[in-house]
C-alpha cells in the first residue's frame, strides 16, 4: 500500500480554461449549500464576478435515450422525473404531442381536470421556488413558509390523483381519475388560505427593506436581451415580453378560462419575485374557476372507454378511478412528427415526438425551462458581486434535475 | 374567453418603507411568535392515516389473476415481472406477477390496467426492508398485505384543510373524510 | 472552620477571578449562550410553523439538545488540513475566544466599590478598547485556512470591523459624554429614575449601537461574513469539531459582551435595583439583573433572524458609513446637548 | 398558418426550401450550406429565438437531420408559430455551421446536440460537452447505434 496518492493530471469534468492572472476562481457547487446539484465556476476580480461558466449535468439521466426504448405510455412517468413537483405541467405537452399524432382529443372534462392539476402544480412549484429564493437570501422564514404552504397543495394533488408528487395523471386520451368527493370544498379552503398567506409573504419578504435592497436592480435582463437569450417563463415575462403559452397557443381548457398573465417591465430580480406572487394568485383564481365550470362527462376518450368491460365502469362509479384497457401497454402511434408546448411552472416546456408507426417512439426531444434559463448564468451574472449570484440564481428559479433531464 | 396579459410595475420603494417595511416584517414575525401554527408530524410517534385512494404498496389477489401479463407490460420501471407457476398438477404453468420494490415508482398503472382488479393499492407508504434482496418480493409475499412499522408504534393522525391555518393536524378518529 | 469557608468565599468571589471565570464570564456566558442558541432555534421554529429542537428532552422543549450538540462537537474529530498555517490556524480561534471574554472584567456589575474588579475610572474606554481586539484573530484564522471561501469570509469580516468599531466607539462614548464621566458606574448611577435610561433620552445612539452590535456579531440582517449559501461558513470553512464550536462560541460570547455593555450604557445596568454592601445584595443580585437584561437584548437579536435576510456586503458598508455613522454623530451631538443642559448632572 | 407558409416561401425563395405544415409547427427544410442564410432571414422576419436545437439519427439513410425550432418573443403574432428549420447532413461526416451567433439562445442547445450526436458545429464559440463528461460524450449516446438493452417481462 503506497502512502502517496497520485493526483491524475486531468480530473474528469475539470477541463478548465486558463484564467487571467489577477482573477480568483471560485467553484460554487456542486455540493454547495445553496446551489443544489449544479456548479457555477466563477472568476472574480475582488468581489466582482467577471466570468461565469455554468456546469450542468450532475443529475443527468439521458431521458431522451431511455424514451426511445419504451412504449409511449411509459414515457409519461419517465418524463415526470424531471420536475416531480411540477409533474402534470412537465408531461402535458408530451401527452398532447402523442394525442396530435394519434389524432384524438380528450373529452372536455379531462381537459378541465388537467388544467386543475396543472394549476395546483404551478402553485406548488412557485412556492418551492420562493422557498429556495428565501434561503438564498438568508431569509429562513421565507424558506420554511412556502415549503409549509406547499404541503397544502401537495395534499390537494394527492387527494385528486393518489400520489403526492409524481401523479402520472394526464395520459394520452384523458386523465386517470375523476374528481373525488369533497374536493371542491377542500380546494376552496386551500385557495382562501393561500390568498391570506400571500399577503403575509409580501409583508415579511417583498416589502422587507433588506430584501428589496438585495433584489432591486440586480440581474437586470432587458427585453431585447431576454428575447435574444431565449429564456422562458416568469423570467421572460418579468422582462416585459408578453409570452405565455396559455395565451399564445391556448391548450386544454385555457381558452375558456378567464385569467391574467402579469408582465413586468423592470426585468430585475425583484420583478421576478413579484411575478411569481401574482402568478400564484392567478393560479388560485383558475382553480376556483375550473371547479365551477367543470363540465360533466367522462374523463377518458371514448375510443378507449368504449372498449372497457362492465367491471371498469363499476370501478369508476365506486372509486372515480379510470381503469386502463390493456391496449395502453402497447399503444401503436401513427407515423409522423408532432411538436407541442406548454407553460410549466418555471416556463415553457417543449416536446418533439417522432413516431415511425411503432409501439416505441423514434425520437423524443424535450427541452425543459430550466435548461433554457441556464444561459442566464453565463450572460447576466458577470458584472455582479458574489453575493448577487444567489439572488440571481434564486430569482430565475433554476431547478437542476429539470435542466439536466 | 382566454386569459389576457396585464402589464404591471413593481412597487417602487419609498423612503417611508424603511420604517413601515421593517415594522410590518417584525409584526408578522411577532404574530407567529405569539400564535404559532405548527403542523409538523412527529413521525415515528404519529403517522398519517392515508386515504383509501392513496397509491401505496400493491397487493395481489391470486384468485382473480388471469395471467394476462398486462401489468408487467405496462410497468414503466420494469418493477413488475411475470413468473411461471404450476398451479395444478398436469396443467401448463401459468404466469403470475411479482414485484420488485427497489424499482417500483408507485405510478399505479398496473393496478389500473388489471382487467380483473386482482391488484390493489394498500394505504401504506412506509415499509422497512432490511436488505435490497428482501424488497424483491416473490409470489407468496406479494399476496400478503405489507404493514407499516409506524402503525405498530404511532398514533394515527389526519390533516384536514382549513381556511385559516392551511392544514390542521387532528387525530384520525376525528375529522371525518378529508 | 468558618474561617475556611470565609476564605473560600473570598477567593471565589474575588471580583477579577469571579467575573472572568464564573459570572458573567466563562460559566455564565456559556449558559447564556446555550440558552440563547436554544431560544434562537425555538423562536425561528415558532415563526416558521415548525417545532424546532424536540427529540432530546421533549418536556423541556428540547433544551438539552444544545448539550447534546456540544458533546458531539467535543468528541468529533478535529481535522487540520495539510495546507493550513498550523500555529495560526489553531491559535487564532483560542486567542479570539479568550480575548472576546476579556472585556467582562473591565465592567462593573454593582455600585459597591468593594466588588470592582479593576479601578473603574475609565472603564468605558477600557471596555471598548478590549472589545476591539478579538476580530483580528478571526481574520487571521480565515487567512491561515488557505481556503478561498475562508479568505473571502475574512475579507468581509475585516471590511465589517472597520465600519462597526467606529460606530460602537462613538455610540458608547456618547453615553459617557452625556453622563459627564467615562466611569461605567457613574453612567449607570446617573440613569435614575427609570425614564432617564439612556435608551429613552438618547434613542438614536441606542438604535445605532444595537445595529452596530448586529454587525459586529454577524446577526441578521448583517450576517455577511458567514453567509452560508454564498461562502459556506466564511472564515470558519475549514474548521471542524471543537474548533468550529469554539469559533461559533466566541462569536456568541462577543455578542454577549456587547449586550452587557449595551445594558450598562443604555438600559440602566442593575437599576432599578439599589445594590447593598453585602455579597448577596451588593454583588449577586445586581449581577443577575444585568445578566437578565443582557439576555433580553440577545433574545431580541435572535428574534431578528426569523424576520430578515442578509444584506450584501457593499450595502451593509454603505449603510454603516452613510446612514449609521451620521446617526451615531447625531446621537453624540444629542449627548453633548444633554451634557450641556445638565440632564445627568 | 398558410399565410406564413407563403411568406416563408417568398422570403427564403432563392434558397430552395421545402416548406410544409406539420403537427404544431411549420417545417422549412434547406440544404446544409444554406442553413446560415436561412437562419439570418428568419431572424429578419422576427423569429428571434430558438426553442430547441436537436438532431434525429436516420441510420438507414446514413443521415442526420439537424433541427432548429425557432419562434418569436417580441412579435406576438409570430409567437403563435413555430418554424422548424432543418437540414440533412451525412452521418459519417457530421458538420454543420453553427447558428449560435445568429441566435444566442442556440448556444447551449448546440453544445447539447454536439455531445449527444457528435455533430460538429463550425464556428461555435465554446463547443464543449455541457451535460455529459467527455468520456461519455465521446460515445454520442443519442445515435441509434448506441443501444440500450431493455429487459423482458419474465423474470
Question: Could you please describe the fold and organization of this structure?
Answer:
- The complex is a heterotetramer of chains A (405), B (178), C (345) and D (155).
- With 405 residues, chain A is an alpha+beta fold.
- Chain A is built from 17 helices and nine strands.
- The longest helix of chain A is centred in the N-terminal third of the chain and has 29 residues, at 108-136.
- Residues 1-8 and 11-15 of chain A have low confidence and may be disordered.
- Chain B has a domain at 58-151: Alpha-Beta Plaits, CATH 3.30.70.3270.
- In chain B, strand 7 (155-162) and strand 8 form a beta hairpin.
- The model of chain B has no long low-confidence stretch (mean pLDDT 84).
- With 345 residues, chain C is mainly alpha-helical.
- At the A-B interface, helix 2, helix 5, helix 6, strand 6 and helix 11 of A face strand 1, helix 1, helix 2, helix 3 and strand 7 of B.
Features:
heterotetramer, A: about 400 residues, alpha+beta, Cytochrome-c3 Hydrogenase, chain B, 3-stranded antiparallel sheet, 9 strands, about 45% helix, globular, disordered N terminus, C: about 350 residues, mainly alpha
> Any idea what the CATH superfamily of chain A is called?
Cytochrome-c3 Hydrogenase, chain B
Which strand order spans the largest sheet of chain D, edge to edge or round the barrel? 1-2-5-4-3
Output the CATH class name of chain D: Alpha Beta
Biggest interface found: A-B, 84 and 56 residues
Q: What number of structural domains do the residues of chain A give?
A: 1
Q: Superfamily at the CATH H level of chain D?
A: NADH:ubiquinone oxidoreductase Nqo5 subunit
What is the radius of gyration of chain A? 22 Å
How would you sum up the global shape of chain D?
A: globular
Shape of chain A: globular
SSE sequence of chain A, one letter per element: EEEHHHHHEEHHHHHEHHHEEEHHHH
Q: How far from one another are the termini of chain D?
A: 51 Å
Fraction in beta strands of chain D: 25-35%
Order of adjacent strands in the largest pleated sheet of chain A:
1-2-3
Structural class of chain D: alpha/beta
Structural class of chain A: alpha+beta
Topology:
The complex is a heterotetramer of chains A (405), B (178), C (345) and D (155).
Chain B: E1 4-8, H1 17-34, E2 46-48, E3 58-60, H2 70-74, E4 80-85, E5 94-99, H3 109-113, E6 119-121, H4 139-143, H5 149-153, E7 155-162, E8 166-171
Chain C: H1 2-12, H2 15-22, H3 26-47, H4 65-75, H5 86-101, H6 123-131, H7 135-144, H8 148-178, H9 184-190, H10 198-201, H11 203-216, H12 228-231, H13 241-266, H14 279-304, H15 313-341
Chain D: H1 2-11, E1 18-21, E2 26-29, H2 35-45, E3 49-58, E4 63-71, E5 83-90, E6 95-97, H3 106-117, E7 120-122, H4 134-137
Parallel strand pairs in D: 2-5, 6-7
Antiparallel strand pairs in D: 1-2, 3-4, 4-5
Amino acid at each position: 500500500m503506497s502512502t502517496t496518492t497520485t493526483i491524475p493530471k486531468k480530473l474528469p469534468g475539470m477541463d478548465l480554461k486558463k484564467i487571467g492572472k489577477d482573477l480568483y476562481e471560485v467553484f460554487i457547487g456542486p455540493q454547495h449549500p445553496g446551489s443544489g446539484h449544479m456548479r457555477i465556476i466563477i472568476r472574480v476580480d475582488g468581489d466582482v464576478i467577471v466570468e461565469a461558466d455554468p456546469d450542468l449535468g450532475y443529475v443527468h439521466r439521458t431521458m431522451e435515450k431511455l424514451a426511445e426504448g419504451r412504449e409511449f405510455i411509459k414515457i409519461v412517468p419517465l418524463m415526470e422525473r424531471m420536475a416531480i413537483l411540477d409533474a402534470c405541467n412537465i408531461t402535458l405537452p408530451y401527452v398532447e404531442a402523442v394525442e396530435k399524432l394519434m389524432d384524438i382529443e380528450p373529452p372536455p372534462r379531462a381537459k378541465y381536470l388537467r388544467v386543475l392539476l396543472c394549476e395546483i402544480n404551478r402553485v406548488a412549484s412557485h412556492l418551492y421556488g420562493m422557498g429556495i429564493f428565501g434561503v438564498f437570501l438568508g431569509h429562513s422564514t421565507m424558506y420554511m413558509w412556502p415549503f409549509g404552504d406547499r404541503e397544502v397543495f401537495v395534499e390537494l394533488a394527492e387527494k385528486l390523483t393518489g400520489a403526492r408528487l409524481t401523479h402520472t395523471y394526464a395520459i394520452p386520451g384523458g386523465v386517470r381519475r375523476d374528481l373525488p368527493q369533497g374536493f371542491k370544498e377542500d380546494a376552496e379552503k386551500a385557495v382562501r388560505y393561500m390568498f391570506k398567506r400571500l399577503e403575509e409573504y409580501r409583508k415579511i419578504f417583498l416589502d422587507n427593506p433588506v430584501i428589496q435592497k438585495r433584489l432591486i436592480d440586480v440581474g437586470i435582463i432587458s427585453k431585447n436581451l431576454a428575447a435574444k437569450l431565449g429564456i422562458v417563463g416568469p423570467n421572460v415575462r418579468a422582462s416585459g415580453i408578453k409570452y405565455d403559452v396559455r395565451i399564445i397557443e391556448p391548450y386544454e381548457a385555457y381558452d375558456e378560462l378567464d385569467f391574467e398573465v402579469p408582465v413586468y417591465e423592470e426585468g430585475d430580480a425583484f420583478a421576478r419575485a413579484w411575478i411569481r406572487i401574482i402568478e400564484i394568485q392567478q393560479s388560485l383564481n383558475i382553480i376556483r374557476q375550473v371547479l365551477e365550470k367543470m363540465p360533466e362527462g367522462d374523463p377518458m376518450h371514448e375510443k378507449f372507454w368504449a372498449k372497457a368491460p362492465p367491471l371498469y365502469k363499476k370501478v369508476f362509479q365506486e372509486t372515480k378511478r379510470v381503469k386502463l384497457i390493456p391496449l395502453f401497454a402497447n399503444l401503436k402511434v401513427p407515423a409522423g412528427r408532432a411538436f407541442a408546448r406548454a407553460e410549466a411552472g418555471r416556463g415553457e416546456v417543449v416536446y418533439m415526438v417522432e413516431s415511425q408507426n411503432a409501439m416505441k417512439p423514434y425520437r423524443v426531444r424535450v427541452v425543459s425551462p430550466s435548461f433554457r434559463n441556464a444561459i442566464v448564468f453565463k450572460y447576466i451574472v458577470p458584472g455582479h458581486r458574489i453575493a448577487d449570484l444567489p439572488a440571481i440564481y434564486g430569482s430565475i428559479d433554476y431547478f437542476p434535475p429539470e435542466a439536466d433531464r | 374567453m382566454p386569459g389576457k396579459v396585464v402589464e404591471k410595475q413593481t412597487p417602487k420603494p419609498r423612503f417611508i418603507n424603511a420604517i413601515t417595511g421593517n415594522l410590518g416584517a417584525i409584526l408578522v414575525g411577532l404574530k407567529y411568535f405569539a400564535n404559532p401554527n405548527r403542523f409538523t408530524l412527529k413521525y415515528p410517534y404519529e403517522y398519517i392515516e392515508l386515504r383509501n385512494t392513496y397509491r401505496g404498496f400493491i397487493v395481489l389477489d391470486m384468485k382473480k389473476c388471469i395471467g394476462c401479463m398486462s401489468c408487467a407490460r405496462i410497468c414503466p420501471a420494469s418493477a413488475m415481472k411475470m413468473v411461471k407457476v404450476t398451479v395444478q398438477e398436469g396443467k401448463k404453468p401459468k404466469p403470475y406477477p411479482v414485484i420488485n420494490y427497489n424499482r417500483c415508482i408507485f405510478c399505479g398503472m398496473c393496478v389500473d390496467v388489471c382487467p380483473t382488479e386482482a391488484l390493489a393499492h394498500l394505504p401504506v407508504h412506509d415499509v422497512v426492508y432490511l436488505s435490497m434482496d428482501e424488497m424483491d418480493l416473490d409470489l407468496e409475499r406479494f399476496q400478503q398485505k405489507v404493514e407499516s412499522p409506524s402503525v405498530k408504534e404511532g398514533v394515527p393522525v389526519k390533516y384536514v384543510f382549513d381556511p385559516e391555518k392551511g392544514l390542521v393536524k387532528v387525530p384520525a378518529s376525528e375529522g371525518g373524510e378529508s | 472552620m468558618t474561617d475556611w469557608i470565609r476564605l473560600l468565599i473570598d477567593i471565589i468571589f474575588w471580583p477579577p477571578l469571579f467575573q472572568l471565570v464564573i459570572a458573567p464570564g466563562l460559566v455564565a456566558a456559556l449558559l447564556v449562550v446555550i440558552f440563547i442558541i436554544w431560544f434562537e432555534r425555538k423562536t425561528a421554529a415558532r415563526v416558521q410553523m415548525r417545532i424546532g429542537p424536540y427529540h432530546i428532552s421533549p418536556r423541556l422543549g428540547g433544551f438539552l439538545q444544545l448539550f447534546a450538540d456540544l458533546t458531539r462537537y467535543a468528541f468529533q474529530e478535529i481535522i487540520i488540513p495539510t495546507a493550513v498555517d498550523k500555529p495560526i490556524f489553531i491559535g487564532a480561534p483560542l486567542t479570539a475566544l479568550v480575548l472576546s471574554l476579556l472585556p467582562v472584567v473591565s465592567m462593573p456589575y454593582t455600585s459597591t466599590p468593594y466588588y470592582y474588579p479593576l479601578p473603574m475610572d475609565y472603564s468605558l474606554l477600557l471596555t471598548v478598547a478590549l472589545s476591539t481586539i478579538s476580530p483580528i484573530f478571526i481574520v487571521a484564522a480565515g487567512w491561515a485556512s488557505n481556503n478561498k471561501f475562508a479568505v473571502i469570509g475574512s475579507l468581509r469580516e475585516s471590511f465589517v470591523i472597520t465600519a462597526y468599531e467606529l460606530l460602537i466607539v462613538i455610540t458608547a462614548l456618547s453615553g459617557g459624554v452625556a453622563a459627564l464621566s467615562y466611569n461605567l458606574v457613574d453612567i449607570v448611577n446617573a440613569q435614575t429614575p427609570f425614564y432617564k435610561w439612556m435608551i429613552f433620552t438618547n434613542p438614536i445612539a441606542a438604535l445605532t449601537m444595537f445595529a452596530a452590535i448586529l454587525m459586529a456579531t454577524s446577526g441578521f440582517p448583517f450576517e455577511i461574513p458567514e453567509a452560508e449559501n454564498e461562502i459556506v461558513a466564511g472564515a470558519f470553512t475549514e474548521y471542524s469539531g471543537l474548533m468550529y464550536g469554539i469559533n461559533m462560541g466566541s462569536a456568541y460570547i462577543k455578542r454577549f459582551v456587547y449586550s452587557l455593555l449595551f445594558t450598562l450604557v443604555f438600559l440602566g445596568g442593575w437599576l432599578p435595583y439599589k445594590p447593598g454592601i453585602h455579597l448577596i445584595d451588593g454583588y449577586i443580585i445586581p449581577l443577575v439583573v444585568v445578566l437578565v437584561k443582557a439576555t433580553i437584548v440577545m433574545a431580541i437579536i435572535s428574534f431578528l433572524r426569523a424576520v430578515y435576510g442578509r444584506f450584501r456586503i457593499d450595502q451593509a458598508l454603505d449603510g454603516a458609513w452613510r446612514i449609521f455613522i451620521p446617526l451615531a454623530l447625531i446621537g453624540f451631538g444629542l449627548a453633548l446637548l444633554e451634557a450641556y443642559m445638565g440632564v445627568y448632572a | 398558418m398558410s399565410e406564413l407558409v407563403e411568406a416563408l416561401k417568398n422570403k427564403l425563395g432563392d434558397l430552395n426550401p421545402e416548406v410544409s405544415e406539420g403537427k404544431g409547427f411549420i417545417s422549412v427544410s434547406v440544404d446544409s450550406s444554406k442553413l446560415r442564410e436561412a437562419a439570418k432571414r428568419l431572424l429578419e422576419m422576427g423569429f428571434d429565438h430558438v426553442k430547441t436545437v436537436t438532431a434525429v439519427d436516420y441510420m438507414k439513410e446514413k443521415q442526420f437531420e439537424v433541427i432548429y425550432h425557432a419562434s418569436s418573443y417580441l412579435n406576438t403574432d409570430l409567437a403563435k408559430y413555430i418554424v422548424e428549420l432543418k437540414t440533412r447532413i451525412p452521418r459519417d461526416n457530421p458538420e454543420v455551421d453553427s447558428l449560435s451567433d445568429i441566435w444566442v439562445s442556440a448556444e447551449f442547445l448546440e453544445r447539447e446536440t454536439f455531445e449527444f450526436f457528435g455533430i460538429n458545429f463550425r464556428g461555435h464559440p465554446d463547443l464543449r460537452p455541457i451535460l455529459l463528461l467527455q468520456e461519455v460524450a465521446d460515445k454520442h449516446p443519442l445515435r441509434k447505434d448506441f443501444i440500450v438493452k431493455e429487459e423482458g417481462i419474465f423474470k
